[in-house]
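User: For my dataset I need records formatted as: sequence, then structure tokens, nothing else. Please produce one.
Assistant:
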Amino acid sequence: MKHIICGLLALAAGAVSAQEVTGYAGALHVNQAQENSFSAGVSYSHPVGQHFALSLSYLNEGHPTDHHRDGVAGQIWVRTGYNQPGWTFGAGAGQYYYFDTTELHNAVGTQYTNDHGWAAIYSLQATYHYPDSRWYNQVQLNRISPTGKDATTALMLGVGYQFNGVKGDKLHVQGASTDEAVTVMAGQGINNSLDSERATIAAIEYRRAVSRYIDWTVTAINEGNTAQSKRNGIATQLWLIRSLNEKVELGMGAGPYFTAKVPDAEGQRSHKAGLVSIAGRYHLAKRVVAEAAWNRVVTDYHRDADLLLIGLGYSF
């Protein structure tokens, strides 16, 4: 994850400028297999001057035969301009950390595996900014090329919104280093198998700001009680946080996940796990904050899972 973390640090340290959030959906082509599927994603972009930008994206590469692959990408962009009416064009390149659920075609025993790795990602985009509006539309072409894996090409259409440029720190508090919150959350867990088994889950998060751009969290997680999900534990993460305005924050966190109870993993030598997360927080009032988070449990025993959580917290 080092490439993504370095990119986020650069975002946090950047000058005041408009920040862009875009949602995408479209079609995906698996080059070697000559197969088609869907593609979707969400991206945060931070302009650096008139002609450069940094971005962090979550991408889902659909469900081609025997593969469910998604991941997080950090990219550097060269663009013809930004924050102006009409068309602008850009080209981006970077690294993509992927999670791939792969069919093993075993007659008995383990039926799938969860592969992780890095891939190069190259992108082209065309953006139309509407006059006197912060909304824009975007067309983006992505090429993802992992070593020894199927390369994919995706064409996606996007809708985005450009936020006011703010300093990016925790503008909602006086003295950000003392910001603390406890948040109670619930949602759904999705096992990263080819059947995507689901369970009701819950979590309690303690969050503390350790600097104006960095949070630290400790989260107790219960992943439910189905045959596939039987796992709970405590995760601790460091987060890089950006404020989009005085009420809205976006952040990405990563850290170890210490599991007290795990799904059956017979024959595995360890039960190591980590947690990678992307979250949005909205300050409803001075002391009340709403949070929505996507969390990926990353394991070395092929029990990866998505944890989708929403909740309310009290800030003090």
